[in-house]
Amino acid sequence: MHPLGVAGQKFAELVETKSEGALKVSLYANAVLGSDQQNLSAVRGGTLDFTIMATSLLAGIDPRFQVFDLPFMFNNSAEAYALSDGPVGTELMDGLADDGIHGLGIWDLGFRNMTNNRGPVAKLEDFQGLKLRVIASPIYIDLFTQLGANPVPMTFGEGLWSA
Fold it and tell me: Which end of the chain is more exposed for a tag (fewer CB within 10 A), N or C?
């Protein structure tokens, strides 16, 4: 199970336990309610209570969320967590309220993880012609294009991923 699904299940369990059964969270995995953008729109419109998504999808609302997409911005996970869990993350989350969103937190979807069916990516030449699934972020698309790869923007529901 994908970490998003594990986290969603844990959240649902905690809500039910803490509310002594008064509240129940229903999970809809594998994009059955639509794409990330459709779910974001539904949250903004009040027809969906929660969604989990990559921060890059929030960049259309607040371009400052692109900080998490900048290549090599962070040396390690600890630096990224310090930014997202500190004042900057709080300011970004608070800024979503004007757009009908209450951000609960920022987490990562992997730190510089790259997998493919061709082999290791150890040098620039390894990117040449490599087809990669990427988050639909202009930064990711441009980065991998410049490296010589063929980036294909896909949401979780379009790929092989499942919650």
Answer: N
